[in-house]
């Protein structure tokens, strides 16, 4: 009973966290729902960039790859190696699209916050920013990861998957259940906190010292943004691999 109450309380807290706001925001009213328009606009732009790059690079595939096709194949091989390392040789292939989508979306979203001049576009309220600069986006990505590793475990083992919660001893049942709630929390807050902090630091430095000093910080921000995308994708693949192999 206590565990069920704790689980419901944790889900309610996640829902309340998704409503956290800093400053003003631009909303669309769709029926009786308010939609966070800033995040949707920037997310659609990121998706459009990814689709455009994929179509341009693969529209004329060659046996001997040229520069664009060679780059896409390199990225695909990198994602395949990452997925294979975390999930295992036998079962990694079906999960390459999911891990690749996560990595590329977060990577392009993070870099868009540093490279694209979002603030030149005026909105009735608020301003545009990287999609991962919003807690709603990172929580959604973390929940998708949770759904993925639950699906992986249940698809392979059926209801026997839940036996991992009482291994190696039933005494650890509350801790093992708590672990599944802390995973999405840590994924979402790590990504959101790092991206928000990086953009705030760059914004403060630009306001104080407009020239020279912000430039190295912007390059550092690009590096840390790429690392955050890699960390998220690696952890997502590791969680899926853990569900497929059993409790570690």
UniProtKB/TrEMBL annotation:
One MF annotation (Gene Ontology) recorded for this entry: proton-transporting ATP synthase activity, rotational mechanism
Keyword Transmembrane helix: yes
Superkingdom to which the source organism belongs: Eukaryota
Stated name of the protein: ATP synthase subunit a, chloroplastic
Subunit structure and binding partners: F-type ATPases have 2 components, CF(1) - the catalytic core - and CF(0) - the membrane proton channel. CF(1) has five subunits: alpha(3), beta(3), gamma(1), delta(1), epsilon(1). CF(0) has four main subunits: a, b, b' and c.
InterPro entries: ATP_syn_F0_a_bact/chloroplast, ATP_synth_F0_asu, ATP_synth_F0_asu_AS, F0_ATP_A_sf
Keywords in alphabetical order: ATP synthesis, CF(0), Chloroplast, Hydrogen ion transport, Ion transport, Membrane, Plastid, Thylakoid, Transmembrane, Transmembrane helix, Transport
Annotated source species: Syntrichia ruralis (Great hairy screw-moss)
TM stretches of this protein: 35-57, 95-115, 135-154, 191-213, 219-240
Family: Belongs to the ATPase A chain family.
Entry's localization field: Membrane; Plastid, Chloroplast thylakoid membrane
Bilayer topology annotation: Multi-pass membrane protein
Any one of the GO CC terms: proton-transporting ATP synthase complex
Pfam family, one: ATP-synt_A
Gene that specifies this protein: atpI
Function noted in UniProt: Key component of the proton channel; it plays a direct role in the translocation of protons across the membrane.
């Amino acid at each position: 009973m206590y565990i069920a109450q704790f689980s419901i309380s944790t889900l309610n807290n996640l829902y309340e966290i998704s409503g956290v706001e800093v400053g003003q925001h631009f909303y669309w009213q769709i029926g009786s729902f308010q939609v966070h328009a800033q995040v949707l606009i920037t997310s659609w732009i990121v998706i459009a960039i990814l689709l455009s790059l994929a179509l341009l690079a693969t529209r004329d595939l060659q046996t001997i790859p040229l520069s664009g096709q060679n780059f896409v194949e390199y990225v695909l091989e990198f994602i395949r190696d990452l997925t294979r390392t975390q999930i295992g040789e036998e079962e990694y292939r079906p999960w390459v699209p999911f891990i690749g989508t996560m990595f590329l979306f977060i990577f392009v979203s993070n870099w868009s916050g540093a490279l694209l001049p979002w603030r030149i576009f005026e909105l009735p309220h608020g301003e545009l920013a990287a999609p991962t600069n919003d807690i709603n986006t990172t929580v959604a990505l973390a929940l998708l990861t949770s759904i993925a590793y639950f699906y992986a475990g249940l698809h392979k083992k059926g209801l026997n998957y839940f036996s991992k919660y009482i291994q190696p001893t039933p005494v650890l049942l509350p801790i093992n259940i708590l672990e599944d709630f802390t995973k999405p929390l840590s994924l979402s807050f790590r990504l959101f906190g790092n991206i928000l902090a990086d953009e705030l630091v760059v914004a403060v430095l630009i306001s104080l010292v407009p020239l020279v000093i912000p430039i190295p910080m912007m390059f550092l921000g690009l590096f840390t943004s790429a690392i955050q995308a890699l960390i998220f994708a690696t952890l997502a693949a590791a969680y899926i691999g853990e569900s497929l192999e059993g409790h570690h």
